[in-house]
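so i finally got all the pieces together for this one. its two components total, 922 residues if u count the protein bits. some of the lines might not be protein, just check the labels. i wanna see the whole assembly predicted at once instead of chain by chain like last time, that was a mess tbh
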Amino acid sequence: MALDPVLATIDRDLDQSIERLFALLRIPSISTDPAYRGECRKAADWLAHELAALGFNADVRATKGHPMVVAHGGPKDRGPHVLFYGHYDVQPPDPLELWETPPFEPRLVGSNGNRRIVARGVADDKGQLMTFVEACRAFIAAEGKLPLRVTILLEGEEETGSPSLPPFLDAHKEELAADVALVCDTDMWDANTPAVTTMLRGLVLEEVIVEGADRDLHSGLFGGAAINPIRVLARILAGIHDENGRIAIPGFYDGAGELDPEIRAQWRALDFNESRFLGDLGLKVPAGEAGRSVLEQIWARPTCDANGIIGGYTGAGSKTVIPARASAKLSFRLVGQQDPMAVREGFRAFVRARLPADCKAEFLSHGASPALQLPLSSPYLAKTRKALEAEWERAPVLKGSGGSIPIVGSFKRDLGMDSLLVGFGVDDDRIHSPNEKYDLASFHKGARSWARILAALAGRN
Amino acid sequence: MALDPVLATIDRDLDQSIERLFALLRIPSISTDPAYRGECRKAADWLAHELAALGFNADVRATKGHPMVVAHGGPKDRGPHVLFYGHYDVQPPDPLELWETPPFEPRLVGSNGNRRIVARGVADDKGQLMTFVEACRAFIAAEGKLPLRVTILLEGEEETGSPSLPPFLDAHKEELAADVALVCDTDMWDANTPAVTTMLRGLVLEEVIVEGADRDLHSGLFGGAAINPIRVLARILAGIHDENGRIAIPGFYDGAGELDPEIRAQWRALDFNESRFLGDLGLKVPAGEAGRSVLEQIWARPTCDANGIIGGYTGAGSKTVIPARASAKLSFRLVGQQDPMAVREGFRAFVRARLPADCKAEFLSHGASPALQLPLSSPYLAKTRKALEAEWERAPVLKGSGGSIPIVGSFKRDLGMDSLLVGFGVDDDRIHSPNEKYDLASFHKGARSWARILAALAGRN
């Protein structure tokens, strides 16, 4: 069966597709902030309602955190059975004052080939997941049904380390196990070149709280005698990296390994402009491990970054205080076979070894997941590459991603499934930053790409 | 003339004195926060009204910041002319959740010899300044007039480095220049032993903002390549102190000098319990320069403390961000002849020398003042020591203070006056901390002490 009517439906329906996406973007589903719990529920309800309207057997399932949306559709006897995964939660929009327009009032801006949608969560991940929903809609409109069996799983805790996902997968193994997972939370190589992401860094999220005196002290009356937790915390953080940008925590690199020589050669052949990549951020010099390319630094090397720090008086003016505590939030990115639990324990031991007399440290874990690699021999990968090449008229790049998608690890570990990571974001989407955007071309051709991939996986063409 | 009727008036009037102090404590005159500007004005108005009711020629004078209260009283032909200085502004009360009762709802708690008043600002400095006002009130009630010429100057910017004071003193030199200044913002040696403070540390307040990329970045997509300002700031702060607790900023100790051997001997003879001093804070080990006593560390050695630090995401949960900026507020305590401007420039140069490629630093100054020392030969000091001994039945200790009182420097530099630093606070008053208190004995015997000092300075007894 020719795919043209399906693709034509996507083209014709584009304006309404955008309106539907806008409706989802208007819901501030910020998962990390308890104040937005109701909005997360609202986003889940909206999605379940949309999918049910397309004929999916769709519902919203409660968890200890934010709910899951699960939807089943397509002919049960037509394989392979695919499990599509996306997330409806978004990052907090702060700092709010840097947004040119309100983050939850989506707009279509620009003209001609440079049209884009601006809103928090449009690239990460609402716009991306809607490309798949719109592809399904087009099949149903043009052919009356999906070309193969499709299960859709949408979560609301991706930005907070997905705490409810592992128990949910464990409790619904039979329902959710499919032949292959389709995951949309990734980027293209550039605005004209699609990509399949085959390497994902892992993630360990730690918070450390250093405590000194039992209360805040006057820095004049006690300064010189009383330990200052900010000074202690600064010294600990300053010791994490050595002069060459390597992480000095003992055992940290265990299992990190080195890049496959074939992949290294492929990446070297890519037209990657380090100066432009950094220049787009207002930077000039790569800040990571000395002697590594930028692509290696962000895709294939482990890191540690402080994501936040706070202690003492931070309001206007000054306050001459020695605070009782100071804290920092850190994220470690992992590669290869690095063990998240070993990294966490290594960090905690590193901190404890550097605590002076009279200081205590408390730790909070905000999540941990290993790095992942898709086997290049996967039969689904070959079909996906062909489908993407047909849409974009360029062979897709097989790339890495510095970001972490813990679900891919759970799919592999708990459900025995590989994941095809295909997304249509681009480098300058400003995800997690003010003025996040998603190109209209990403949204439109993304939906067309999924239509082609679903057809290809179903054995058509 | 016998002083007994004046002292008896103070004793009899104590309950009303407490009520008057409570009225002042209920005004949240937080000078560092622009939101409390009106409350600072209210505190100034309240004080001017009280002093006018006592017969002072009192008024509120506008400045670019918070207003001054200036009041003149007593016989113009009876010397010496004394200038009493205090401040009506207070520190912010945060962290609010650690207060057992609301900071601006004063309470009298405890029983017998352990009664105390709890409220923000009660020890620093509202309770202290009211001891002097109550002593004046008692003279007027018992004798119909003050025993000597008194000028009172109360400011509202002491907690923010007194930016308006130097121009105000400069503009009112003739009106304010007296024979000696009386400054009440200091402590006793202990709850039973009075003290005159003869050494004050100076203060330099600096804020540094380190900036990296031109926006917040996703720590997965950019971590490893993009510089992290928290890491840079931590490294700078960690480098300020060496392994022995000495400050590593080049030239920092220029002019700091060493303690006078006589003073050192006097301090050694004091019954100072280092373990108890630290134990009261929940600490065990002095954190300052190795090889110095705690008294020397807090009274006679310079320090650097971070008073606050902030950067990146500091809300609930986690956010995988590399922030665009991180900042810290620092205070330097100075001794001897250290030059505040040189310390400031030394710090800024130290920071700039440690900035990696792609990072910028901005600096904000929140004030600067040198250290001060009262000549031990002052004739007013001898009379004051005698008066204090009469009230407390113990000879006062001549001590240092780690805190800074910039006004004392201005009095010396601009008006050619020495200052007698006499206050009735004690170590555990928790100034600048939650649950600040002032002993009822400090308040009551403090007022009696000022009555005795005023009489002694006037040549009575």
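Residues 122-143 of chain A form the longest helix (22 residues).
Chain A is about 35% helix and 20% strand.
anyway lmk what u think
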